[in-house]
Amino acid sequence: MESTSVLFSTFPPFPTLSLSVPSETRISDLYGLLCNRYPDLPTEDHLSISPHSGSLTPDTLVSELHGASPSLVTLRLVPRLLGGKGGFGSQLRAAGGRMSSQKTSNNDSCRDLSGRRLSTLKTAKRLVDYMENEDVRKKAAADAKKAKLESLERKIAAASVDPEALAGKKHRFDDTEYLEESRELVDNVRSAVSAGLIKKKKKTKTDHPSNSAEVSKTGVPTASHTSVAATPIPSVAVAASA
Predict the structure, then answer these.
(1) What is the largest CA-CA distance in the chain?
(2) What is the pLDDT of residues 53-105, one digit of tens each?
(3) Please, are residues 48 and 80 in contact by the beta-carbon 8 Å criterion?
(4) Could you tell me which of 66, 74, 17, 5 has the C-alpha nearest to residue 42?
(5) What is the torsion angle, in degrees rounded to the nearest 10, for the CA atoms of residue 107, residue 109, residue 115 and residue 121?
(6) For the segment 33-49, what is each residue's pLDDT rounded down to a tens digit?
(7) Using one digit for the tens of pLDDT, what is the confidence trace for 155-213?
C-alpha cells in the first residue's frame, strides 16, 4: 500500500507538523493519528483540519488530495471559532439608531456642485442683505437720536421753570383721618407741657416761704448755710499742733 506524507501548517506556538499515512486514509482519521504522534495537541473540539483552498468532507481520502507531487499533501491545522450567544444584529441596529438621533443640520463645511463651501455662500448672502438694508439702519439710527434729543430738551425745559412759581401752587390734602390724628397729638402735647409748667411754678412757691420762716425764727442760718464756714477748722487745728 502506498503511503503519503502529509504536512500540517499550524499556528504559534506549534511548529509545522508532518505525518506519513496510507493513501486510503480518510480525513476524519488524520487528527487521531496526529494526536498519537504529538500528544501535546489540543483535542479535536478545539482544532480542525482544512485545505489551503476549498473545503473537505470527513469521508475524503488523502489520495484525492494529491497535487503536483503524488506522495505529498499539505493541509492546515486551524483553531475552531467558538460561537457566541448572538445579538450582534441588535447591537448594530441600536448603534444605527443612536447615529440617526445625532444628525446635525450644520452643513456649512459641505460644498456645492461648483466646489464652493456652503459657509462661504451664506456669508456672501448675509453681506448682500446687510448692504441692501444700510439705508433703513441709518434712518432708524437717526430717528432714535432725534427722539433722544427731544426728550433731553423736554427735561431741560421742565428743570428751567421758576421754582417759586411751583412753590406757589396749592395742593389739596384730603386725608381727613390723618389730619384729625395729628391735631389730637398736638393738643395732647400742648396740654401736657402746660400742666408740667404749672406744677413746677407751684413747687417753687411752696419751697420759698418755708426757707424764709426758718431764718426769721432762729436768726441762725441752717446747716446748709454754715457748712461753708465750718470748712477752715481742720487747717487751724493742724497749725496749733505744729
Answers:
(1) 178
(2) 777 787 778 777 776 566 788 888 888 777 666 677 788 888 877 777 667 77
(3) yes
(4) 17
(5) 70
(6) 888 888 877 777 777 78
(7) 887 776 555 555 555 656 667 788 888 888 988 998 888 888 888 888 887 776 555 55
Residue 75 gets which letter from DSSP? E
Grid coordinates representing 77? 491545522
Cell reading at 186: 398736638
71 and 5 Cβ atoms separated by less than 8 Å: yes
Cα separation, 33 vs 229, whole angstroms:
152
Query: What is the spatial order of strands in the sheet that 17-22 belongs to?
Result: 17-22, 3-9, 72-79, 47-50
Letter for the amino acid at 76?
A: R
**Which letter, b or e, does each residue of 63-100 get, where b requires 16 or more Cβ atoms within 10 Å of its Cβ?**
eebeeeeeeebebebeeeeeeeeeeeeeeeeeeeeeee
164: which 3 cell numbers? 417759586
**Parallel, antiparallel or unpaired: strands 72-79 and 3-9:** parallel
HSE toward the beta carbon, residue 181, CA cutoff 13 A: 4
Which residue carries 438621533 as its cell? 101
Residue 109: all three cell numbers together: 463645511
Q: Which of 76, 73, 77 is nearest to 5 (CA)?
A: 73
Which one-letter amino acid corresponds to residue 201? K
User: What whole-number distance in Å separates Cα of residue 200 and Cα of residue 219?
Assistant: 29
Distances (CA, A) of 34 to 59, 76, 187, 221: 17, 13, 131, 153
List phi, psi (to 5°) of 167.
Answer: -70, -30
